[in-house]
Design brief:
With 369 residues, the protein is of the alpha/beta class. The protein has 2 domains: 8-180 and 317-368, Alpha-Beta Complex (Quinone Oxidoreductase, Chain A, domain 1); 182-313, NAD(P)-binding Rossmann-like Domain (Rossmann fold, 3-Layer(aba) Sandwich), CATH 3.40.50.720. The chain has helices at residues 60-66, 116-119, 172-175, 181-191, 207-218, 233-239, 274-277, 301-305, 319-332, 346-354, and strands at residues 8-10, 19-26, 35-42, 48-57, 83-90, 102-105, 108-110, 133-134, 138-140, 154-158, 163-164, 199-203, 222-227, 243-246, 260-265, 280-288, 310-313, 338-341, 361-365. The strands form 5 sheets. Strands 4, 5, 6, 10, 11, 18 and 19 form a 7-stranded mixed β-sheet that branches. A 6-stranded parallel β-sheet has the order 14-13-12-15-16-17, covered by helices on one side. Helix 4 crosses helix 9 (319-332). The radius of gyration is 20 Å and the shape is globular. The protein binds zinc ion (ZN) (2 copies). The site of one zinc ion has 6 residues, from loops.
Protein backbone atom coordinates (compact mmCIF):
# COMPACT_ATOMS: atom_id res chain seq x y z
CA UNK A 1 0.00 0.00 0.00
CA UNK A 2 1.28 3.43 -0.63
CA UNK A 3 1.46 5.67 2.38
CA UNK A 4 1.04 9.29 3.22
CA UNK A 5 2.87 9.14 6.49
CA UNK A 6 3.91 12.76 6.89
CA UNK A 7 1.56 15.29 8.38
CA UNK A 8 0.80 17.54 5.44
CA UNK A 9 0.82 21.31 5.56
CA UNK A 10 0.03 23.82 2.88
CA UNK A 11 0.50 27.54 3.06
CA UNK A 12 -1.94 28.80 0.51
CA UNK A 13 -5.48 28.40 1.70
CA UNK A 14 -7.51 31.50 1.04
CA UNK A 15 -9.97 32.75 3.63
CA UNK A 16 -13.00 30.57 4.11
CA UNK A 17 -15.88 31.67 1.93
CA UNK A 18 -19.38 30.32 1.72
CA UNK A 19 -19.76 26.78 2.93
CA UNK A 20 -22.10 23.94 2.21
CA UNK A 21 -22.94 21.04 4.49
CA UNK A 22 -22.14 17.45 3.50
CA UNK A 23 -22.80 14.18 5.31
CA UNK A 24 -19.75 12.13 6.19
CA UNK A 25 -18.32 9.31 8.29
CA UNK A 26 -15.35 10.24 10.44
CA UNK A 27 -12.93 8.89 13.01
CA UNK A 28 -13.27 11.17 16.03
CA UNK A 29 -10.35 9.51 17.84
CA UNK A 30 -7.71 6.89 17.00
CA UNK A 31 -9.47 4.00 18.71
CA UNK A 32 -13.04 5.02 17.86
CA UNK A 33 -15.19 3.40 15.17
CA UNK A 34 -16.16 5.73 12.33
CA UNK A 35 -19.34 7.65 13.05
CA UNK A 36 -21.65 9.95 11.07
CA UNK A 37 -20.94 13.69 11.16
CA UNK A 38 -21.75 16.78 9.14
CA UNK A 39 -18.85 18.59 7.51
CA UNK A 40 -18.51 21.87 5.64
CA UNK A 41 -17.40 22.00 2.03
CA UNK A 42 -16.39 25.29 0.45
CA UNK A 43 -18.57 26.71 -2.32
CA UNK A 44 -16.67 26.74 -5.62
CA UNK A 45 -14.01 29.44 -6.02
CA UNK A 46 -13.34 30.49 -9.63
CA UNK A 47 -11.19 27.40 -10.38
CA UNK A 48 -13.14 24.89 -8.29
CA UNK A 49 -15.32 21.95 -9.20
CA UNK A 50 -18.06 20.86 -6.76
CA UNK A 51 -18.75 17.13 -6.90
CA UNK A 52 -21.57 14.93 -5.57
CA UNK A 53 -19.72 11.77 -4.54
CA UNK A 54 -21.34 8.55 -5.77
CA UNK A 55 -18.74 5.98 -4.67
CA UNK A 56 -15.48 5.87 -2.75
CA UNK A 57 -13.01 2.98 -2.71
CA UNK A 58 -11.59 1.75 0.59
CA UNK A 59 -7.77 1.81 0.51
CA UNK A 60 -5.55 0.19 3.15
CA UNK A 61 -4.24 3.69 3.82
CA UNK A 62 -7.74 4.65 5.03
CA UNK A 63 -7.69 1.89 7.59
CA UNK A 64 -4.23 2.74 8.96
CA UNK A 65 -4.99 6.46 9.01
CA UNK A 66 -8.47 6.19 10.54
CA UNK A 67 -7.22 3.93 13.30
CA UNK A 68 -4.39 6.28 14.19
CA UNK A 69 -1.65 3.84 13.19
CA UNK A 70 0.30 6.51 11.33
CA UNK A 71 1.68 9.72 12.83
CA UNK A 72 -0.07 13.04 12.28
CA UNK A 73 -3.69 11.96 12.66
CA UNK A 74 -6.03 14.97 12.72
CA UNK A 75 -9.56 14.47 13.97
CA UNK A 76 -12.23 14.45 12.85
CA UNK A 77 -10.73 12.37 10.05
CA UNK A 78 -12.91 11.60 7.04
CA UNK A 79 -10.91 9.02 5.02
CA UNK A 80 -11.25 8.21 1.33
CA UNK A 81 -9.10 9.01 -1.74
CA UNK A 82 -10.67 6.86 -4.44
CA UNK A 83 -13.52 9.24 -5.20
CA UNK A 84 -15.91 9.20 -8.16
CA UNK A 85 -19.06 11.20 -8.73
CA UNK A 86 -20.80 13.83 -10.77
CA UNK A 87 -20.06 17.53 -11.09
CA UNK A 88 -22.80 19.65 -9.48
CA UNK A 89 -21.37 23.13 -10.14
CA UNK A 90 -18.17 24.82 -11.31
CA UNK A 91 -16.40 28.12 -10.62
CA UNK A 92 -16.47 30.96 -13.14
CA UNK A 93 -13.03 30.17 -14.64
CA UNK A 94 -13.47 26.40 -15.04
CA UNK A 95 -13.54 25.32 -18.69
CA UNK A 96 -12.62 21.63 -18.58
CA UNK A 97 -15.68 20.46 -16.64
CA UNK A 98 -19.37 21.21 -16.51
CA UNK A 99 -22.26 20.13 -14.31
CA UNK A 100 -23.25 16.53 -14.99
CA UNK A 101 -19.75 15.31 -15.94
CA UNK A 102 -18.46 12.09 -14.38
CA UNK A 103 -15.23 12.83 -12.53
CA UNK A 104 -12.74 11.40 -10.07
CA UNK A 105 -10.46 12.65 -7.31
CA UNK A 106 -7.46 10.67 -6.09
CA UNK A 107 -4.90 11.06 -3.31
CA UNK A 108 -4.08 14.74 -3.88
CA UNK A 109 -6.18 17.91 -3.88
CA UNK A 110 -3.37 20.46 -4.26
CA UNK A 111 0.42 20.92 -4.42
CA UNK A 112 2.87 23.86 -4.57
CA UNK A 113 2.62 24.06 -8.41
CA UNK A 114 6.04 25.77 -8.50
CA UNK A 115 8.70 23.13 -7.94
CA UNK A 116 10.28 21.14 -10.77
CA UNK A 117 8.28 18.00 -9.97
CA UNK A 118 4.99 19.91 -10.09
CA UNK A 119 6.18 21.55 -13.32
CA UNK A 120 6.78 18.12 -14.84
CA UNK A 121 3.37 16.80 -13.84
CA UNK A 122 4.78 14.74 -10.98
CA UNK A 123 2.79 16.50 -8.27
CA UNK A 124 2.97 13.29 -6.25
CA UNK A 125 6.65 14.11 -5.70
CA UNK A 126 6.06 17.81 -4.93
CA UNK A 127 9.32 19.10 -3.47
CA UNK A 128 7.87 21.90 -1.35
CA UNK A 129 8.34 21.57 2.38
CA UNK A 130 4.74 20.55 2.82
CA UNK A 131 4.61 18.13 -0.14
CA UNK A 132 1.32 17.67 -1.94
CA UNK A 133 -1.92 18.28 -0.08
CA UNK A 134 -3.53 14.99 0.84
CA UNK A 135 -7.16 14.50 -0.03
CA UNK A 136 -7.78 13.70 3.62
CA UNK A 137 -5.85 14.44 6.80
CA UNK A 138 -4.07 17.28 4.97
CA UNK A 139 -3.38 20.30 7.13
CA UNK A 140 -4.80 23.48 5.64
CA UNK A 141 -2.90 26.46 7.03
CA UNK A 142 -5.13 29.44 7.65
CA UNK A 143 -8.19 27.28 7.20
CA UNK A 144 -10.26 26.13 10.13
CA UNK A 145 -9.99 22.44 9.41
CA UNK A 146 -7.95 19.63 7.85
CA UNK A 147 -8.94 18.17 4.48
CA UNK A 148 -11.78 15.66 4.47
CA UNK A 149 -11.89 12.72 2.06
CA UNK A 150 -14.44 10.73 0.15
CA UNK A 151 -16.39 8.97 2.90
CA UNK A 152 -18.81 11.85 2.36
CA UNK A 153 -21.55 13.03 0.04
CA UNK A 154 -19.71 15.95 -1.58
CA UNK A 155 -16.29 17.50 -2.14
CA UNK A 156 -14.98 20.70 -3.74
CA UNK A 157 -11.62 20.47 -5.52
CA UNK A 158 -9.52 22.72 -7.76
CA UNK A 159 -10.02 21.67 -11.39
CA UNK A 160 -6.30 20.84 -11.76
CA UNK A 161 -6.80 17.96 -9.35
CA UNK A 162 -10.03 16.64 -10.90
CA UNK A 163 -9.89 13.73 -13.39
CA UNK A 164 -12.31 13.08 -16.25
CA UNK A 165 -13.96 9.64 -16.26
CA UNK A 166 -14.83 8.21 -19.67
CA UNK A 167 -16.06 4.78 -18.60
CA UNK A 168 -19.82 4.07 -18.91
CA UNK A 169 -21.72 5.24 -15.84
CA UNK A 170 -22.71 1.63 -15.08
CA UNK A 171 -19.04 0.94 -14.25
CA UNK A 172 -18.60 3.96 -12.01
CA UNK A 173 -18.29 2.10 -8.69
CA UNK A 174 -15.61 -0.19 -10.14
CA UNK A 175 -13.69 2.81 -11.52
CA UNK A 176 -13.19 4.32 -8.04
CA UNK A 177 -10.20 2.13 -7.05
CA UNK A 178 -8.33 3.22 -10.19
CA UNK A 179 -7.79 6.59 -8.50
CA UNK A 180 -5.30 5.10 -6.01
CA UNK A 181 -4.76 1.37 -6.58
CA UNK A 182 -4.84 1.84 -10.35
CA UNK A 183 -2.40 4.71 -10.67
CA UNK A 184 -0.09 3.39 -7.93
CA UNK A 185 0.59 0.36 -10.11
CA UNK A 186 0.24 2.08 -13.51
CA UNK A 187 2.94 4.65 -12.76
CA UNK A 188 5.79 2.17 -12.12
CA UNK A 189 4.60 -0.14 -14.92
CA UNK A 190 4.91 2.77 -17.34
CA UNK A 191 8.10 4.22 -15.86
CA UNK A 192 9.89 0.85 -16.13
CA UNK A 193 8.42 0.11 -19.58
CA UNK A 194 6.10 -2.83 -18.97
CA UNK A 195 4.96 -3.85 -22.42
CA UNK A 196 5.46 -6.36 -25.23
CA UNK A 197 8.55 -8.50 -24.81
CA UNK A 198 8.89 -7.66 -21.12
CA UNK A 199 8.31 -10.12 -18.28
CA UNK A 200 6.65 -8.57 -15.23
CA UNK A 201 6.16 -10.19 -11.82
CA UNK A 202 3.52 -9.05 -9.34
CA UNK A 203 3.95 -9.92 -5.67
CA UNK A 204 0.88 -9.74 -3.43
CA UNK A 205 -2.40 -10.00 -5.33
CA UNK A 206 -4.69 -7.72 -3.30
CA UNK A 207 -6.16 -4.29 -4.01
CA UNK A 208 -2.97 -3.01 -5.67
CA UNK A 209 -1.67 -6.30 -7.04
CA UNK A 210 -4.85 -7.25 -8.86
CA UNK A 211 -4.73 -3.92 -10.70
CA UNK A 212 -1.04 -4.47 -11.50
CA UNK A 213 -1.89 -7.82 -13.11
CA UNK A 214 -4.71 -6.34 -15.20
CA UNK A 215 -2.73 -3.29 -16.29
CA UNK A 216 0.52 -5.14 -17.07
CA UNK A 217 -1.44 -7.64 -19.17
CA UNK A 218 -3.26 -4.91 -21.05
CA UNK A 219 0.06 -3.14 -21.70
CA UNK A 220 1.25 -6.28 -23.45
CA UNK A 221 3.71 -7.67 -20.91
CA UNK A 222 4.07 -11.32 -19.93
CA UNK A 223 2.66 -11.38 -16.37
CA UNK A 224 3.70 -13.71 -13.56
CA UNK A 225 1.66 -13.54 -10.35
CA UNK A 226 3.25 -14.61 -7.06
CA UNK A 227 1.05 -15.83 -4.23
CA UNK A 228 1.36 -17.79 -1.00
CA UNK A 229 -2.02 -19.42 -1.51
CA UNK A 230 -2.78 -22.22 -4.01
CA UNK A 231 -6.47 -21.40 -3.65
CA UNK A 232 -5.89 -18.06 -5.40
CA UNK A 233 -4.32 -19.55 -8.52
CA UNK A 234 -7.43 -19.65 -10.73
CA UNK A 235 -8.54 -16.18 -9.66
CA UNK A 236 -5.13 -14.69 -10.51
CA UNK A 237 -5.15 -16.36 -13.93
CA UNK A 238 -8.65 -14.95 -14.45
CA UNK A 239 -7.31 -11.44 -13.73
CA UNK A 240 -4.95 -11.88 -16.67
CA UNK A 241 -1.73 -13.42 -15.35
CA UNK A 242 -0.02 -15.76 -17.82
CA UNK A 243 1.52 -17.78 -14.98
CA UNK A 244 0.98 -18.10 -11.24
CA UNK A 245 3.83 -19.11 -8.94
CA UNK A 246 3.18 -20.47 -5.48
CA UNK A 247 5.96 -18.98 -3.31
CA UNK A 248 5.25 -21.38 -0.46
CA UNK A 249 5.15 -24.47 -2.68
CA UNK A 250 7.64 -27.33 -2.62
CA UNK A 251 9.28 -26.21 -5.86
CA UNK A 252 9.34 -22.67 -4.57
CA UNK A 253 10.79 -20.35 -7.15
CA UNK A 254 12.96 -22.92 -8.91
CA UNK A 255 13.14 -22.22 -12.60
CA UNK A 256 12.26 -18.55 -12.24
CA UNK A 257 15.77 -17.27 -11.42
CA UNK A 258 16.85 -14.43 -13.74
CA UNK A 259 13.57 -14.59 -15.63
CA UNK A 260 11.88 -11.21 -15.02
CA UNK A 261 12.55 -7.65 -16.18
CA UNK A 262 10.43 -5.97 -13.53
CA UNK A 263 8.78 -7.01 -10.29
CA UNK A 264 6.08 -4.94 -8.62
CA UNK A 265 6.02 -5.76 -4.92
CA UNK A 266 2.78 -4.60 -3.27
CA UNK A 267 3.25 -6.37 0.06
CA UNK A 268 2.89 -4.03 3.03
CA UNK A 269 4.68 -6.13 5.64
CA UNK A 270 8.41 -6.80 6.14
CA UNK A 271 9.74 -9.65 4.00
CA UNK A 272 12.86 -11.06 2.37
CA UNK A 273 13.58 -9.03 -0.78
CA UNK A 274 16.43 -11.32 -1.87
CA UNK A 275 13.86 -13.97 -2.80
CA UNK A 276 12.58 -11.66 -5.54
CA UNK A 277 15.85 -9.94 -6.48
CA UNK A 278 17.23 -13.29 -7.56
CA UNK A 279 14.36 -13.61 -10.05
CA UNK A 280 15.39 -10.47 -11.94
CA UNK A 281 17.31 -10.59 -15.19
CA UNK A 282 20.34 -8.38 -15.71
CA UNK A 283 19.34 -4.71 -15.22
CA UNK A 284 16.00 -5.76 -13.76
CA UNK A 285 14.20 -3.68 -11.13
CA UNK A 286 12.26 -4.61 -8.01
CA UNK A 287 9.79 -1.80 -7.32
CA UNK A 288 8.29 -1.46 -3.85
CA UNK A 289 4.87 0.21 -3.58
CA UNK A 290 3.94 -1.17 -0.16
CA UNK A 291 5.04 0.66 2.97
CA UNK A 292 5.92 -1.91 5.65
CA UNK A 293 5.19 -1.11 9.30
CA UNK A 294 8.79 -2.16 10.08
CA UNK A 295 11.83 -2.22 7.74
CA UNK A 296 12.40 -5.10 5.35
CA UNK A 297 15.45 -7.21 6.26
CA UNK A 298 18.42 -5.68 4.43
CA UNK A 299 18.89 -7.35 1.03
CA UNK A 300 22.20 -8.82 -0.06
CA UNK A 301 24.49 -6.44 -1.96
CA UNK A 302 25.66 -9.43 -3.98
CA UNK A 303 22.18 -9.90 -5.41
CA UNK A 304 22.28 -6.30 -6.63
CA UNK A 305 25.85 -6.31 -7.90
CA UNK A 306 25.51 -9.55 -9.82
CA UNK A 307 23.25 -8.55 -12.64
CA UNK A 308 23.28 -4.78 -12.01
CA UNK A 309 19.87 -5.06 -10.41
CA UNK A 310 17.98 -2.23 -8.71
CA UNK A 311 15.52 -1.82 -5.89
CA UNK A 312 13.25 1.17 -6.35
CA UNK A 313 10.12 2.68 -4.88
CA UNK A 314 7.14 4.50 -6.37
CA UNK A 315 4.39 6.67 -4.84
CA UNK A 316 0.94 6.92 -6.50
CA UNK A 317 1.21 9.00 -9.72
CA UNK A 318 0.90 12.56 -11.06
CA UNK A 319 -2.27 14.09 -12.46
CA UNK A 320 -1.27 13.66 -16.10
CA UNK A 321 -0.46 9.98 -15.77
CA UNK A 322 -3.59 9.41 -13.66
CA UNK A 323 -5.67 10.77 -16.55
CA UNK A 324 -3.70 8.63 -19.02
CA UNK A 325 -4.38 5.57 -16.88
CA UNK A 326 -8.11 6.34 -16.65
CA UNK A 327 -8.35 6.84 -20.40
CA UNK A 328 -6.37 3.65 -21.09
CA UNK A 329 -8.70 1.73 -18.76
CA UNK A 330 -11.81 3.20 -20.40
CA UNK A 331 -10.51 2.26 -23.86
CA UNK A 332 -9.58 -1.24 -22.77
CA UNK A 333 -12.60 -1.97 -20.59
CA UNK A 334 -10.53 -2.22 -17.40
CA UNK A 335 -12.07 -1.68 -13.97
CA UNK A 336 -11.31 -2.93 -10.48
CA UNK A 337 -12.86 -6.06 -8.99
CA UNK A 338 -15.04 -4.77 -6.19
CA UNK A 339 -17.53 -5.54 -3.44
CA UNK A 340 -19.98 -2.68 -3.09
CA UNK A 341 -20.74 -1.86 0.54
CA UNK A 342 -22.86 0.33 2.81
CA UNK A 343 -20.92 2.91 4.80
CA UNK A 344 -22.41 1.74 8.10
CA UNK A 345 -20.44 -1.52 7.74
CA UNK A 346 -17.08 0.17 7.37
CA UNK A 347 -15.44 -0.89 10.66
CA UNK A 348 -16.41 -4.52 10.18
CA UNK A 349 -14.98 -4.32 6.66
CA UNK A 350 -11.72 -2.78 7.90
CA UNK A 351 -11.38 -5.92 10.04
CA UNK A 352 -11.99 -8.12 7.00
CA UNK A 353 -9.30 -6.18 5.09
CA UNK A 354 -6.78 -6.88 7.85
CA UNK A 355 -7.48 -10.59 7.36
CA UNK A 356 -7.13 -10.22 3.59
CA UNK A 357 -10.78 -11.17 3.18
CA UNK A 358 -11.67 -8.90 0.25
CA UNK A 359 -11.87 -9.52 -3.50
CA UNK A 360 -10.27 -7.13 -4.29
CA UNK A 361 -11.53 -3.76 -3.17
CA UNK A 362 -14.45 -2.56 -1.08
CA UNK A 363 -16.25 0.41 -2.57
CA UNK A 364 -18.66 2.49 -0.51
CA UNK A 365 -21.99 3.40 -2.10
CA UNK A 366 -22.48 6.89 -0.71
CA UNK A 367 -26.22 6.73 -1.24
CA UNK A 368 -26.26 4.55 1.90
CA UNK A 369 -25.10 7.39 4.13
ZN1 LIG B 1 -4.75 4.68 -1.32
ZN1 LIG C 1 5.55 21.17 -5.95
Amino acid sequence: MHSDVRPQRIAEESAPGDREIAQAFAALAAAAPLSPIEIERRSPRPNDVAIAIAYCGVCHSDLHAARGEWPGMMCPMVPGHEIVGRVTSVGSKVTAFQPGDLVGVGCMVDSCRKCSSCGEGAENYCESEQGYLQTYNGYVKGGDRNTYGGYSTAITVDERFVLAIRHPESQLAAVAPLLCAGVTTWSPLRYWNAGPGRRVGVVGIGGLGHMAVKLARALGAHVVGFTTSESKRDAILALGAHEVVLTSGERGLDGYEQSLDLILDTVGSPHDLDVYLSLLKRDGTLVLVGVPDAPHPSPSAVNLILGRRSIAGSLIGGLKETQEMLDFCAENGIVSEIEQIAIQDIDELFDRMIKGDVKYRFVIDLSTI
